[in-house]
What we know:
Distance between the termini: 74 Å
Mean pLDDT: 91
Oligomer: single chain
Radius of gyration: 26 Å
Number of strands: 5
Strand content: under 5%
Strand order of the largest sheet: 2-1-3-5-4
Largest sheet: 5 strands, mixed
Order of helices and strands: HHHHHHHHHHHHHHHHHHHHEHHEHHEEE
Helix content: 55-70%
Shape: elongated
Amino acid sequence: xxxxxxxxxxxxxxxxxxxxxxxxxxxxxxxxxxxxxxxxxxxxxxxxxxxxxxxxxxxxxxxxxxxxxxxxxxxxxxxxxxxxxxxxxxxxxxxxxxxxxxxxxxxxxxxxxxxxxxxxxxxxxxxxxxxxxxxxxxxxxxxxxxxxxxxxxxxxxxxxxxxxxxxxxxxxxxxxxxxxxxxxxxxxxxxxxxxxxxxxxxxxxxxxxxxxxxxxxxxxxxxxxxxxxxxxxxxxxxxxxxxxxxxxxxxxxxxxxxxxxxxxxxxxxxxxxxxxxxxxxxxxxxxxxxxxxxxxxxxxxxxxxxxxxxxxxxxxxxxxxxxxxxxxxxxxxxxxxxxxxxxxxxxxxxxxxxxxxxxxxxxxxxxxxxxxxxxxxxxxxxxxxxxxxxxxxxxxxxxxxxxxxxxxxxxxxxxxxxxxxxxxxxxxxxxxxxxxxxxxxxxxxxxxxxxxxxxxxxxxxxxxxxxxxxxxxxxxxxxxxxxxxxxxxxxxxxxxxxxxxxxxxxxxxxxxxxxxxxxxxxxxxxxxxxxxxxxxxx
Length: 538
């Protein structure tokens, strides 16, 4: 395929400089060179990343790193239900298989811990793809091991990504699909238009069946294909196979139709076309898009800058931007592709009015990690222009690797979730306190999804307090949730009112009533502390 690099004398000088003296001669041991350039290297990188994530992962259910949704995802997977919008059909199906597999390998292991390891696995595979991507982009293949390792390590230990690899959430799988899409775009042979089209379309379809924000990458994808010398967009075969690949990926939405019709976690409503569209389009969250007040836009932009800077420190960010500058000088198409990914994602993250919107910046963080070794190369060329010498490239790359390892060691105590237990203590308190046939009201995602996990994921809550009805106050605004409650709890009085106050009043004196938070329709002076919960005592 045509190289992404444009001919430039300085590019050749850099390639030569980044090969050590031993690389130039015949003294390089052939087995070592074969190992460094073989598929074994990225596999080893993925294996080490997985062990690292497994060591620092949360031992069970967690709320850390924006991980409140984990309880919902796990409960949906365990009951063959449908989690919150957009339903995440690809993720849920893979998570179900993973939970079963680890259940066979480690019988009796904590279900939430298994879910955390799924994120670790997806994150580790994305590290391997990152390694291969940089190895492909590096001008001199025989000296690409250290640059690829530097980018892979930078990505693996970036706090935003590292944190997601330790919890049950959807974002490491999303990152894997994004990284794989970039690799398929720039590295897959262009002389195989049918296979390439099917691969690109398939990855895009899988991405759409997982997280709709992957659609923000489409302008960059079209630019790259449009500007390619082989002009794939002008070939009907490419469009045909790309379309088939996309449809194949989108078929995973069929899981929403195959989910258990009586699952206790089911955000798909009655399964009507309108209910399914509400789910898969993320209509419940649409009000957050472009909803940042004008007076807060500067603050959100500052948060964007802080998030980006904090991933690799200001020094690392400087190297990353130097790498972008190198792409600007020597690989204009790569530069434009990167910017067409960075800008839409950044605008989306800045304009999305939620407290966790920084998580959408993961593709931007990944690109900076990819730029890092190229920034080191830019620095090496600058040094050589003033003080010529051999071996500066390898020395600089090795120094950056050591620096990243030291930085990760410093960050380890703060980022590790090995001893995180706040969510598990909440669940344990609920299991200890709640009586059989209780009504348990909740509102916030963290408490609600933790209770769902305890009821239908691990099952410990309903085992200790059978007959307990879980009612989410915030979801009662939706008719599908009212219908779900009526189906789950046919003997729960007051559901027909469609209001939490109606359910509360209808069950006072008939059932023990608890709240996970001080939330209407109860008021503070009507609630008594009961472990991590509140008992209603008017």
